[in-house]
Write a structure and sequence with these properties.
It is a single chain. The protein is of the alpha/beta class and about 700 residues long. The strands form 7 sheets. The chain has an 8-stranded mixed sheet with strand order 16-13-17-22-18-21-19-20, with helices on both faces. It is elongated.
């Protein structure tokens, strides 16, 4: 028996629907070709906490990108943290392994592999003292410091022991220095000073330049030999014998501590107490197995010690921000292009550089963002037709992480910046734009990129000069109660003058009976008597007159003392009011600031109606001419000005007060804002933000 035709049709349609349903969205999506980002392999690169090794890290970053890898980082890590992370597979590699120094951190872990030798026997270490002291007292060895008299020359904290500038606590060398002090029986006369190595050594260089004795540990490559050259400025101290902490090292390591041709050492060969270290790349074994081209590349890379030393010296000589270090690495790669290309060809002759895989930008999206900036030192500077400053350098770091290019153009006001972003003429706006409720209502901001507050700028010599004293006295006369005090005093003198004239006018020619002449002479007598001058040219003769004179002289002490105290108090109050030392001193003073700023809002909130100016140069001019008493504005701006262009003429006073936060104006593009925020957090967490902040504001904070 045949089924009706419509039943076959329904059955066919049902079967077709079932087939469609069984194909999941995930399976359908898998049919699509992978994106370009999915095809780019990533290297998680680390670098050490000592910035003298960041040059090598940047060179390796560039090489890896030329090999076709996206580089995540470099992330700054402590030694032990890196070796633990690379063993767990949480990080892929760094180019800053020191061997044999880092050997104990590596252990016997098969998950970690040492690759190549980027600096061969170039990492030297040792103890040093200034050559003048070494020659004066005959110091040639660290062991000589067992003598308390010699050690006392290097006792900077007066605790009875020499202060040896040593290693950071987390560095592997810290334990070895401590071991040496124990092994050479120096713990009673020498102590290792551990802290932040770079500023400690900067202080050591300053002390040396001031002619003071210095004692320190250092290593190469580093910037220090450029300022304290062994054999010319400092002596290289030997150690009594080679010694390292347990477990006992290979005898060959101890033997390697005796080196020939060591500059500044008293003996040749020299017992340095430290084995020469090779600087080598360290990577996860599984990562290298999955990416053999990286292992081949790392086996080829060699960076001359002299090049690292020169770069380290450039860092200390004013080229120490992150963009400088990256530029130094790019310059080095360009100078060695032929050699670099040989390395890359050996690693992978078919490699496609990262920028060609992902676009034209540094990380390859190909986008170019227009950025509206306003000159606002130190956040945005403009010199030789090039924009710079803290905000610009931070934006460059963010752009590199987001894979975009940025182009800057200048405007004259915050209002113009915000308007350009709102109407799409600019993608971003920056230069110390404070995040306020009014601005946030009309435009979106990134996460705060700078936290600060307000401060007060005053003349450097406020209230100190003779001219200021004269102006202060004139101000006291015309702006306080002093005129009323003077008037009251004159009225009291007139009253006394009338009393003595009325009592003495008939029988005493010193007080003429004629009113005009008599009152004047009487006024003269009352004035010289109350002020205790008492010329004696006029004197009462009658009993009543003399009685009144006696009372007037006694009362004069109190009247004149009261008058003097009132004047002194009035002038003292005016003097105190004339000196601004903090926010509480601002009332009753003329204060300038910029409109629509947090400073204006603060001053209005305190009942201080500010003088609003078009820009800060106008405010500086008003303050210089005495038209205003102070300027209140964002702390880093005024501090930067006072430390540089306004040095000697202006100074900031009091604490930083009232929170102010700067952000990047990004419009209403939520995706762009999220990109910027993620890049900003990455910069902060990597430690790069702190370095950039210290470069621009560290000295001001001190």
């Amino acid at each position: 028996m045949h089924r009706p035709l419509h039943r076959h049709i329904v059955a066919a349609i049902g079967l077709l629907c079932l087939l469609i349903v069984t194909i999941s969205p995930a399976e359908a999506q898998s049919e699509q070709p992978p994106s370009a980002d999915d095809q780019v392999p990533t290297v998680r690169l680390a670098r050490p906490t000592w910035d003298t090794g960041w040059f090598q890290a940047e060179i390796n970053r560039i090489l890896l990108e030329r090999l076709g890898f996206a580089v995540d980082g470099p992330q700054t890590m402590e030694n032990e943290a890196f070796y633990d992370a690379v063993a767990r597979g949480d990080i892929d590699l760094w180019a800053n392994g020191w061997f044999p120094l880092h050997g104990p951190l590596l252990g016997d872990d098969d998950d970690v592999r040492i690759v190549g030798t980027q600096v061969d026997d170039g990492a030297l270490q040792g103890y040093f003292t200034d050559l003048a002291t070494a020659e004066e007292v005959g110091i040639t060895s660290l062991g000589d410091l067992a003598d308390p008299e010699i050690a006392a020359r290097f006792d900077t904290d007066e605790d009875g022991r020499a202060d040896l500038i040593g290693c950071n606590l987390e560095w592997a060398c810290h334990e070895i220095v401590e071991h040496h002090l124990t092994a050479y029986e120096l713990t009673d006369t020498v102590e290792q000073v551990s802290g932040d190595y770079s500023p400690l050594m900067e202080e050591t260089v300053r002390r040396f330049q001031a002619g003071e004795p210095v004692l320190y540990y250092t290593f190469t490559p580093n910037w220090i030999p450029a300022f304290l050259e062994p054999g010319e400025d400092v002596a290289w101290l030997q150690t009594p014998f080679p010694s390292l902490p347990e477990p006992s090292p290979d005898p060959s390591v101890l033997d390697s501590m005796t080196l020939a041709d060591v500059p500044g050492c008293a003996d040749d060969p020299c017992q340095t107490g430290w084995a020469p270290n090779d600087i080598r790349a360290v990577a996860g074994a599984s990562f290298l197995d999955a990416n053999p081209q990286v292992e081949t590349l790392l086996e080829q890379v060699q960076i001359p010690l002299a090049d690292i030393q020169r770069q380290n010296a450039r860092m200390v000589d004013g080229e120490g921000d992150s963009t400088d270090i990256a530029r130094h690495a790019e310059e080095w790669v360009a100078e060695h292009e032929a050699t670099v290309q040989e390395w890359l060809n050996l690693a992978d002759p078919d490699a496609v550089p990262l920028d060609q895989q992902r676009g034209t930008g540094p990380a390859g999206t190909g986008e170019t963002w227009q950025v509206a900036v306003r000159t606002f030192e130190p956040f945005v500077t403009y010199e030789n037709r090039v924009y710079g400053g803290f905000s610009v350098e931070l934006t460059e770091l963010l752009a590199a992480r987001m894979g975009v290019e940025v182009e800057y153009y200048g405007v004259n006001s915050v209002a113009k910046q915000i308007d350009d972003v709102q109407r799409g003429a600019a993608d971003l706006a920056l230069s110390g734009i404070s995040i306020t409720a009014d601005r946030e209502a009309g435009i979106d901001f990134s996460l705060p990129v700078f936290d600060t507050g307000l401060t007060i700028l005053v003349p450097a010599d406020q209230g100190r000069g003779i001219g200021d004293r004269i102006r202060s006295l004139a101000g006291a006369i015309f702006t306080t109660e002093l005129p009323w005090l003077i008037l009251a005093f004159v009225l009291v003198l007139l009253l006394a003058a009338h009393m003595i004239w009325w009592l003495e006018r008939r029988d005493n020619p010193d007080f003429p009976e004629l009113y005009g002449r008599g009152i004047w002479d009487s006024f003269w007598w009352s004035a010289v008597t109350i002020t205790t001058v008492g010329y004696g040219d006029k004197a009462p003769k009658g009993v009543a007159g003399r009685g009144f004179a006696l009372l007037w002289m006694i009362a004069g002490y109190f009247v004149f003392a009261s008058f003097t105290a009132s004047i002194t108090s009035s002038l003292a109050v005016d003097e105190l009011q004339g000196s601004i030392a903090g926010p509480s001193d601002l009332p009753n003073h003329v204060v300038a600031t910029l409109p629509n700023s947090p400073a204006e809002a603060y001053l209005n909130g305190q009942g201080i109606g500010p003088v609003l100016v078009g820009d800060l140069p106008e405010a500086y001019e008003l303050l210089d001419e005495g038209e205003v008493d102070a300027i209140v504005f964002d702390a880093p701006i005024l501090q930067f000005f006072a430390a540089r262009e306004g040095s000697g003429r202006f100074r900031t006073v009091g604490p930083v007060f009232e929170d102010v936060r700067y952000g990047i104006a990004v419009g209403d593009d939520a995706d762009r804002r999220e990109q910027i925020n993620l890049a900003l957090l990455d910069v902060i967490e990597s430690g790069v933000y702190d370095q950039l902040h210290d470069q621009w504001f560290g000295a001001l904070a001190d």
